[in-house]
């Protein structure tokens, strides 16, 4: 009888501890959800559909132009935006990879998406914006994927110095930057190595947010491409081989990072089918994936409609919360 009483007592203590712990966790989740929800509602209310998409860069990085690698005498840099509120002992990281058709662009964060990234910063995240070697006269997907993966490896290497949580790294890519992000996140640690000083560090991330990213390069609508990229693609001898080698779908399995795909059915440059193929492959392999289909938004988001904003913000909200360190 005493043994039974002890077991019952111990069970009650365990249940009490679990209940208190779960209560604290769920309270934090509710608080986090409420905070992000307020930020997103404010963002939606202040978003003007009549204004042009604001592409001018912000300039408030806490650490600017940090050289993360110097391979083949090409110095590549990143910027760090610290959390505006400290919520965790070590900060989760969101890595931003810019678009620009693999030919243009830089690590500057456009003002138009800064409010979205500020939501992360307000909730304890560090934002890191990186650059990669742009294509000039030749196709250079191999080097560009290496650059993004080396940025992730640099984060692991320098996590203590900048108070970063290397177990909580997410990556967000825009257009061609989304393609490089998917390739970097899905491919194994030992692939796409470039800098010998970084090669032994991991390149694993927790999740990927893919905005309008190409997957199957053969689907690109070449009539709408810029002059530089058109010339580069036309110079490739075996386009099918390159398209196959640099298609993130080839790396999809059940263990890839959680993926949020955002794509518009009205995209005139990167067909919606590109993301649909990725989504279907993820479902087939039982990978964690969510596809948010926008109806009218243009590829560069210069045209974006109210319903698309609602759909986008709702799903981004859920994805942020589900991938916060509270989970």
From TrEMBL:
GO terms for molecular function: hydrolase activity. Residues 78-281 form the BD-FAE-like domain. It holds the Pfam family BD-FAE. The chain crosses the membrane at residues 7-26. InterPro entries: AB_hydrolase_fold (IPR029058), BD-FAE-like_dom (IPR049492), GDXG_lipolytic_enzyme (IPR050300). Keywords: Hydrolase, Membrane, Transmembrane, Transmembrane helix. PANTHER family: AB HYDROLASE SUPERFAMILY PROTEIN C4A8.06C, ALPHA_BETA HYDROLASE. This is Alpha/beta hydrolase.
């Amino acid at each position: 009888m005493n043994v039974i009483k002890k077991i019952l007592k111990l069970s009650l203590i365990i249940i009490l501890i679990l209940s208190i712990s779960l209560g604290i966790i769920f309270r934090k989740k509710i608080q986090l959800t409420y905070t992000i929800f307020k930020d997103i509602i404010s963002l939606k209310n202040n978003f003007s559909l009549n204004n042009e998409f604001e592409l001018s860069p912000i300039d408030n990085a806490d650490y600017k132009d940090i050289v993360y690698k110097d391979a083949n005498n090409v110095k590549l840099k990143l910027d760090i935006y610290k959390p505006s509120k400290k919520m965790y002992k070590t900060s989760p990281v969101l890595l931003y990879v810019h678009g620009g058709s693999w030919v243009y662009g830089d690590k500057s964060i456009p003002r138009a998406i800064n409010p979205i990234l500020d939501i992360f910063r307000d909730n304890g995240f560090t934002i890191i914006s990186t650059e990669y070697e742009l294509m000039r006269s030749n196709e250079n997907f191999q080097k560009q994927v290496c650059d993004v993966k080396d940025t992730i490896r640099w984060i692991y290497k320098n996590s203590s110095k900048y108070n970063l949580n290397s177990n909580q790294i997410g990556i967000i890519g825009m257009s061609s930057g989304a393609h490089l992000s998917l390739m970097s996140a899905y491919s194994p640690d030992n692939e796409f190595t470039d800098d010998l000083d970084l090669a032994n560090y991991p390149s694993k991330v927790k999740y990927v947010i893919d905005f309008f990213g190409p997957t199957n390069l053969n689907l690109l609508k070449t009539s709408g491409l810029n002059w530089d990229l058109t010339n580069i693609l036309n110079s490739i001898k075996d386009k099918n081989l390159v398209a196959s080698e640099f298609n993130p779908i080839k790396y999809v399995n059940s263990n890839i990072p959680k993926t949020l795909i955002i794509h518009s059915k009205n995209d005139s440059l990167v067909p919606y089918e590109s993301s649909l193929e990725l989504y279907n492959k993820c479902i087939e392999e039982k990978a964690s994936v969510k596809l948010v289909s926008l109806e009218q938004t243009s590829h560069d988001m210069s045209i974006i409609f109210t319903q698309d904003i609602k759909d986008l913000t709702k799903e981004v909200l859920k994805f942020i919360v589900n991938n916060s360190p509270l989970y």
